[in-house]
């Protein structure tokens, strides 16, 4: 039987709670990606690999999009997302928790209809041979069940023409992410690096691509922010609402 | 008859002079690229689109590589490079000024033998229709006679396995440059953005690719440097020797 970790409930705003565990929790990267995505109220959105549902939930704090799909291949992640929603009174979007393999989309997936796909993906390239167990944590952090090319291909299928894919990743994966977007007709349009200090190597980048867009990448000024420790501190530092 | 601009001689160090004109001069970007390239004394090097030969000449200031080809399609650029060499007493590398179209390489080109190719290329994508005259300045600044894909293809042919291509460009071209390297078997390995201030948008990036390299991009801390005005100030600020 699969290991069932202890669950915690973390308030991220008045009336908004996420259910976290040691397997499906969240970090500063999710907060930064949510803000970077620049979602609008009229948007229909999908969050790939949603985990505990942190990105759909953060979007509830201010001017939420009309509809959000939260997709994860792991049933326990979707269960946590549902538990968080059940504890939250201030959800304004229509939320669809979906347990599915994003490589194949899912029945009734809104193909060609979405304005925005977000994805805080597994960061580490899959190294054949070093993974002996398919644990939940490895699935969430390594490209075992899907890689950045799968993510871009599925995003392309869901997005309307001109729709946007916003992802974050470690700087060493930038070439892979740009390549994966381009191979799937999503043009990289906006890039921001995140570092702990002005003279430090970046620890994260945020990248927006546009389905069917023309080449011209807008590289934003460096964003300086620590990678945080306590959740409350993290939220206050990175995205006060 | 072609317009012949006035020539100037600029000393870049004791015994090192470059011959500049309004058509073939140099900027901070060439100085930054030379430093970024990390050339070594045992290297055999080629500089694509060398113009007045500033990069081969800057490499003479400290621990020069053993041999440098300077290639430009414009005869007047190569003439200026030769005039600069003739005025310089402190050249230590074997220098080969070559007037050629780098798309086709040239007779006796050292295919598969070089350690390093540098290129400070035309920055602007060619927009069909807006160029009415093929002036020297347009050739140097727009992708009229060669584009970043041509540059990567020719660099690949010249480099030995593991050899490096170092280029600079405007941030909006980053996706094109990464794509062009990858399409030609040159893996982006090291990236640095250059901005005028810690909170400014970058105005340049420096990118190193390795022929046959494995994916893993090292993104360096932001380099803060103005884009300069006077030549002497530029050299002092960016690369004191």
CATH topology of chain A: Rossmann fold
CATH superfamily of chain A: Vaccinia Virus protein VP39
Oligomer: homodimer
- The CATH architecture category of chain A equals 3-Layer(aba) Sandwich
Class per helix and strand makeup of chain A? alpha/beta
Number of strands of chain A: 11
Largest interface: A-B, 30 and 30 residues
- Average pLDDT of chain A, rounded to a whole number, is 90
Terminal CA distance of chain A reads 41 Å
**What percentage of amino acids of chain A are in beta strands?**
25-35%
> Portion of residues in helices of chain A?
25-40%
Count of helical regions of chain A: 7
Domain module tally of chain A = 1
Poorly predicted ranges of chain A (pLDDT <50, ≥5 residues)? 229-234
- How many strands, which pairing sense, and closed or not: the largest β-sheet of chain A? 9 strands, mixed
What is the radius of gyration of chain A computed over CA atoms, rounded to a whole number of angstroms?
A: 17 Å
Helix-strand topology string of chain A: EEHEHEHEEHHEHEEEEH
* CATH top level label of chain A: Alpha Beta
Outline of chain A: globular
Domain Methyltransferase small (chains A, B): 31-132
GO molecular function (chains A, B): methyltransferase activity
InterPro entries (chains A, B): SAM-dependent_MTases_sf, Small_mtfrase_dom, tRNA_Adenine-N(6)_MTase
Pfam families (chains A, B): MTS (PF05175)
